Amino acid sequence: MITKPMMEKLFGIPNLFPRNSGYHRICSTSHRMSSSRLYKVWENMKSRCDNKNHPFYRYYGSRGITVCDDWNNSFLAFYEWAISHGYGEKLQIDRIDNDKGYNPFNCRFITQKENLRNKKTFLDSEINFYTIQTLIKNDIPFEFIKEFSGLSPRSYRKR
After folding, report:
1. How confident is the model at residue 104 (pLDDT cuts 50, 70, 90)?
2. In angstroms, how far is CA 75 from the centroid of its own chain?
3. Is 114 helix (H, G, I), strand (E, B) or coil?
4. Which residues contact 94 (CB under 8 A, 6 or more apart)?
């Protein structure tokens, strides 16, 4: 559990939790962290899943990806989990199983490089690259390879 001294040490904000407010009843504007990077991570995670106008909604919300109720309703619940599970300013949230939602059992923090390697487009391009290499080694015409992959022969030579 995150304690008041830990919060003060992390954010340098004394009296982060008003005495009579109750630790878990603090609304998102009273915790004084709405300008923090972690708060933006939380907001963006929720928006990708819930806001049909978000540019990436089609990759998240429309696929049925959701945010668990605890995190969706409470930044502090998400904050406590994040801090206790290795959150760092240079890390990104990642879903371990990309077909499941954001929840404490399916999320972790990883580097941007690791996150990019997990993206479907990257995995697809790696699979295509090795498949195309095999086709080239077996003297399959580039016209067929182009039709198969949608890329030009010059693209394969660059790899």
Report:
1. very high
2. 16
3. helix
4. 107, 108, 109, 110, 114, 115, 118
Provide the CA 28 distance to its chain's centre, in angstroms: 21
How far is Cα 29 from Cα 22, in angstroms, rounded to an integer?
A: 14
For range 72-93, the mean pLDDT: 95
* Length of the chain measured in residues: 159
Terminus-to-terminus CA distance in the chain, angstroms? 48
Q: Tell me the whole-structure pTM to 2 decimals.
A: 0.59
Three-state DSSP string of 47-97: HHHHCCCCCCHHHCHHHCCCECHHHHHCHHHHHHHHHHCCCCCCCEEEECC
Segment 118-127 long-range contacts (CB within 8 Å, at least 24 positions apart): 118/94
